[in-house]
Amino acid sequence: MQRTAQLTADRTAPTLAHEAYDPLHARAVRVLEENWTGASSVPSRGLYPHQWSWDSAFIAIGLRHVSPLRAQTELETLLAAQWADGRIPHIVFSPSVPLDAYFPSPDFWRSATAGRAAGAPRTAQTSGIVQPPVHALAAWLVHRADPELSRARGFLSRLYPRLAAWHRYLLHRRDLGGGGLASVVHPWEQGMDNSPCWDAPLSRVRPAPARSFRRADLDHGAPEDRPTDLDYGRYVRLAAGYRDRGYADGEGEFAVEDPAFNALLIASEHALARIARELGATGTARHARAGRLTASLVERLWDPAAGAFLCRDVRAGELIPELGVSGLVPLLLPELPREVAAALVRTLGGPHFGLGGTTLLVPSYDLLGESFDPHRYWRGPAWFNTAWLVERGLRAHGELERADALRESFLGVAGSSGFAEYVDPYTGEACGALGFGWTAALTLDLLHDPKGAESAMDMSGTGGFKGGNRA
């Protein structure tokens, strides 16, 4: 309780009347306090003992409601480990954590040596791959939580060049398909690591022998909830090959254009335009680029027959016929054609995802798919960060009743599951780690910003984020 009070007292944002009385708020704050290391947050104390890239972005979005200073520090710590080529690594390793606490560990990635040509930092050990670009979106929302503090600390002026370099890396080095979208070169980069959407492109990868690595994740989770040894062997082989090529892009056998990854890049381009305007520039070019990226997203990844966006296997030159929650995340973008947004809403509530009917939260994979498993990592369970993205997307398209219902379900399941990493989409049964950082953080965001006033995309006029859709 004392540690929770410490974080609450650290806040600089206005006090909300319900804070002292809402036990869910207090429990979520306690999780964030327990996961705070002094300069950043771990996703969970056991299974994930380092700093993860998109986790920190989501955590900052929630932290801004209780301590804008810590939210700013969260992003600053992550971006301090950025590579010279612009990439933000998916893990920043803590030197105080033993090597055997997590695999792949720093001695696998060898960032300082294998990543030298790409400009890996000398002062931090990191992985060499990336994660979805939520960072500019998070930075803008953190700034909006306390603009005076942000301006006094030069928060946006210091982050903007780093965020701009990050986007340049993705838009140039990672346009492996030549159609304007960013590609991921490893399933871990997309964040939905074990999705059946990766099965076909991964089948081309010869797995590393099981005896060549030790899976630390099985010390913290049931084997039936985690990726199989075969899949993990492919992940290891793919990562080792990327490392051995000096983290050079474009040569590996795995390259996929993913709809959620690119939708978050588009949302962050709009946020980066707002940051540019805050700093005295126009942001017009970035809004225009976001519009072009949205058009490319629809052109390359939209499948009208599926009623969803699909992943594109760049190496095979074809769409992957698997329905995952990634294909629903572009609902976050209000510039989508009206018929596309309407189809996504129908798919979300239809038999493949069952939201509002058979499921409590959005499953990570097609309920009717052959590979569906309600407990196995990203092959069916529901995750809270994707639920948050879909909830904000529903609001952006005026689907307020559906958004309200998803919000209520999110808050109920988050609390009852102990802020689980992920849950059974039918029952809400907890899976994976408990006390998970982004689950607690996004719970706070839905408690403090229930109508999405700070998160809804506004493409009218200058674009960016607005508060004009409060009910």
Automatic annotation (TrEMBL):
Entry superkingdom: Bacteria
Domain called Mannosylglycerate hydrolase MGH1-like glycoside hydrolase: residue spans: 48-439
Pfam family, one: MGH1-like_GH
InterPro entries the UniProt entry points to: 6-hairpin_glycosidase_sf, 6hp_glycosidase-like_sf, Glycoside_hydrolase_63, MGH1-like_GH
GO BP field: oligosaccharide metabolic process; protein N-linked glycosylation
Keyword Hydrolase part of the UniProt annotation: yes
Keywords: Glycosidase, Hydrolase
An annotated Gene Ontology molecular function: Glc3Man9GlcNAc2 oligosaccharide glucosidase activity
Annotated family: Belongs to the glycosyl hydrolase 63 family.
Name of this protein: Mannosylglycerate hydrolase MGH1-like glycoside hydrolase domain-containing protein
Biological source species: Streptomyces naganishii JCM 4654
